Structure formats: C-alpha cells, structure tokens
C-alpha cells in the first residue's frame, strides 16, 4: 500500500455538518433508471479529493446510496 497523499493539514476544518457545502460543488445531476425505477444521482466535487466525484443517489426523497467515485452519465 502506498503512502497517503497530502496530510491532515491539507484537509478543510469542518466543525458543523453545514460547513461542508463551502468545500463542495455540484458536478452533475442526472435522472437514471435503477431496478426499473427512476432515481436522481447528484455528483459532487469536493476540495479534499481532486481525483474522484462523489455521488448521492436518491429515490422518492430518500437517500439510496453514497458512492465515493462516480462518473457523469
């Protein structure tokens, strides 16, 4: 296993959940079909991970899945 990239000093200081949004931006929003039903996928870029797009999948207003690496449709 390789050495971790960056250090703890490189991470943003986040003390409250709502503070994460100043370090994140929406990369894409897509309506996709999963298991025969429509779902929404939102891809986020975050300041501390330049290599990956984080994804949140939702259906009927409920979170289905968080994924650490998604691709735009």
Summary keywords:
elongated, mainly beta, 73 residues, four-stranded antiparallel sheet, single chain
SSE arrangement:
Blueprint: E1 24-34, E2 37-46, E3 49-59, E4 62-67
Antiparallel strand pairs: 1-2, 2-3, 3-4
Question: Mind explaining what this structure looks like?
Answer:
By secondary structure, the chain is an all-beta fold. The chain has a domain at 23-73. It is built from no helices and four strands. The protein has strands at residues 24-34, 37-46, 49-59, 62-67. Strands 1-2-3-4 form a four-stranded antiparallel sheet, with no helix packed on it. The radius of gyration is 14 Å and the shape is elongated.
Please provide a brief summary of the model:
The chain has 73 residues and is an all-beta fold. The chain has strands at 24-34, 37-46, 49-59, 62-67. The radius of gyration is 14 Å and the shape is elongated.
């Amino acid at each position: 296993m390789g050495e971790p990239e960056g250090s703890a000093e490189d991470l943003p200081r986040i003390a409250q959940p709502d503070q994460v949004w100043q370090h994140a931006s929406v990369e894409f929003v897509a309506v996709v079909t999963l298991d025969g039903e429509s779902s929404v996928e939102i891809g986020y870029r975050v300041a501390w991970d330049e290599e990956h797009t984080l994804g949140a999948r939702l259906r009927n207003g409920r979170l289905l899945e968080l994924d650490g690496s998604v691709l735009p449709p």
